[in-house]
């Protein structure tokens, strides 16, 4: 019995030519379980980062993150916070922002209470970046709280028994 292989096309490991349609060249994934507590309006590293070395200057990098988060607000307060993405030290995504700060994510609390809290696994927007380099590039996330007029914390990689795990995935696509 004879065998045959039929395909519509084969994409080389070096990716498809420019304008040829977005073949995946490489994937890098990293994770962290180190707890980071953020209760400031200053952007602070969440501890989640990964480094990729693009094979081509024309490549695009898709950044996907999945954070394990615990939020807490003291008293009868709403609690909001935001995540931004960076390539090295350059911001490539900022959350919605106004005079009070970022508010990608949040919890609203109504009625008397001493402490409000929640666990979550948040997935911020996926970002497609054009680093225009073949040098190593580090992608990371930072977060900050929404307002300073109350006590609120957002804890990344937090759990009551053991630290949670957050993930970052970088995918290089041919340009």
Give a quick set of tags describing it.
Jelly Rolls, 175 residues, 0% helix, seven-stranded antiparallel sheet, five-stranded antiparallel sheet, mainly beta
In round numbers, the mean pLDDT is 80
CATH fold naming: Jelly Rolls
Name the helix and strand elements from N-terminus to C-terminus, one letter apiece: EEEEEEEEEEEEEE
**CATH architecture annotation:** Sandwich
Q: Note the main sheet.
A: 7 strands, antiparallel
Report the C-alpha radius of gyration, rounded: 20 Å
Task: Tally the helices.
Answer: 0
Give me the oligomer status: single chain
Helix content: under 10%
Estimated share of beta-strand residues: over 45%
Shape: elongated
End-to-end CA span? 42 Å
Q: What is the number of strand segments?
A: 14
Structural class of the helices, strands and pairings?
mainly beta
Low-confidence stretches: none
| Number of self-contained structural domains | 1
CATH class: Mainly Beta
Write up what this structure looks like.
This protein is mainly β and 175 residues long. It has one domain: Jelly Rolls (Sandwich). It has no helices and 14 strands. The chain has strands at residues 24-32, 36-38, 44-52, 60-74, 79-87, 90-93, 97-98, 101-102, 105-107, 115-122, 127-129, 137-145, 152-156, 166-173. The strands form three sheets. Strands 1, 2, 4, 10, 11, 13 and 14 form a seven-stranded antiparallel sheet that branches. Strands 3, 5, 6, 9 and 12 form a five-stranded antiparallel sheet that branches. β5 and β6 (90-93) form a beta hairpin. The mean pLDDT is 80.
């Amino acid at each position: 019995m004879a065998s045959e292989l039929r395909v519509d096309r084969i994409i080389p490991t070096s990716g498809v030519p420019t304008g040829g349609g977005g073949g995946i060249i490489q994937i890098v994934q990293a994770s962290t379980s180190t707890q980071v507590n953020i209760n400031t309006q200053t952007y602070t590293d969440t501890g989640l980062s990964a480094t990729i070395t693009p094979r081509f200057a024309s490549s695009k990098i898709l950044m996907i993150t999945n954070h394990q988060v615990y939020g807490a607000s003291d008293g009868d307060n709403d609690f909001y916070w935001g995540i931004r993405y960076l390539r090295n030290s350059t911001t490539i995504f900022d959350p919605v922002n106004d005079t009070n700060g970022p508010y990608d994510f949040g919890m609203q609390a109504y009625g008397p209470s001493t402490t409000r809290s929640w666990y979550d696994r948040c997935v911020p927007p996926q970002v497609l970046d054009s680093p225009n380099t073949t040098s190593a590039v580090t992608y990371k996330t930072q977060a900050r709280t929404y307002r300073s007029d109350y006590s609120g914390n957002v804890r990344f990689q937090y759990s009551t028994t053991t630290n949670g795990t957050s993930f970052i995935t970088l995918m290089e696509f041919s340009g």
